[in-house]
Design goal:
elongated, Arc Repressor Mutant, subunit A, 4 helices
């Protein structure tokens, strides 16, 4: 437990948010909106790189590292591809070709013809 005086804690809790924190909240809302819209367009959910590009296209000034941090703190994760279900995917069975050249494939010792 922290050794903090109750009046100091209540004063800290009552302080307004800094301009940077307000900007972070606003950009997080934009990132979540772009993330929700990304699933409807391409069929898969964006990662932070494409979300950064979308936010920059909206006219926002945000660095890739800040976008990565905002995405991580918002709990957004990219969907990476679609995995195939295990099992048989069809195709024809392997066919053994006839020995039309009458080659000898049985050898008696290594490195001898």
């Amino acid at each position: 437990m922290l050794q903090v005086h109750p009046s100091g804690l209540s004063a800290w809790l009552g302080k307004p948010l800094s301009p940077r924190a307000l900007e972070d909240e606003r950009q997080t809302v934009l990132i979540k909106q772009a993330w929700d819209d990304s699933d409807k367009v391409y069929g898969y959910v964006y990662g932070y790189r494409k979300l950064h590009d979308d936010i920059c296209d909206m006219g926002e000034d945000i660095s890739p590292n800040r976008a990565w941090r905002r995405v991580r703190l918002a709990g957004i994760k990219a969907q990476i591809g679609c995995k195939k279900k295990p099992g048989f995917y069809g195709g024809s069975p392997a066919v053994v070709a006839d020995n039309t050249l009458n080659r000898e494939f049985d050898v008696h010792a290594p490195d001898q013809f």
